[in-house]
Amino acid sequence: MDNVITYLKPVSIFKRIFGTVIFIFSFYTVIYQNILFGFFMLSFAVYLISSEGTQINLDNRTYRSIWSIFAIHFGKWKPIPDFEYISVFKGKQKQRVNSLGASTTFTDVVFLINLFYNRNKHITFYRTFDKENAFKVAQHFKLALGLDILDATEREQKWVD
Which residues cross the membrane (predicted)? Predict the structure, then answer.
């Protein structure tokens, strides 16, 4: 068995249950009711229960960005570059919501796990809203890849022991 690290964006249990019920009901709709509406329901269910993330295969030295549904992962494997260090970066994520002519923007603090190579190039492997979770994941990458961690969550950046 390959030594693979997988991180997926979490999906709430309510979304999973609701999406699974719609997924099952959509097949009934396709077979016994309206095919077009059934496929619309199926696509909505897939949207609800799917997740995005990344995988690193340590044995083959490859990685991929994945789209996952029912624990089946899709994505193309690429060779891992020679990573130099891990960075935990604090940023802001904006989301705009439009409804009935009104719109608003929500801003959340997000923590990104970036693996840097070739001095300033990076690949974002994980995204979370929890700082402790970000450092937990970074420690996992540190152990698996033997890299140092740079804490870039504050104005003053520092290396983590």
Answer: 21-49, 97-117
Query: Among positive and negative, which fits the CA dihedral 116, 54, 128, 103?
Result: positive
Q: State the pLDDT at residue 77.
A: 94
**Alpha carbons 17 and 75: distance in angstroms, whole number:** 25
Task: Return the SS3 of 41.
Answer: helix
Angle between helices 13-32 and 35-49 (to 10 degrees): 160
- pLDDT tens digit string along 9-18? 877 888 889 9
Question: Buried b vs exposed e over 35-47: b needs ≥16 C-beta within 10 Å?
Answer: eeebeebbeebbe
The domain ranges of the chain are 4-74, 81-160
* Residue 33 DSSP one-character state: S
DSSP string, 1-31: ---EEEEE----HHHHHHHHHHHHHHHHHHH
* Euclidean distance between CA atoms 108 and 46, whole angstroms: 25
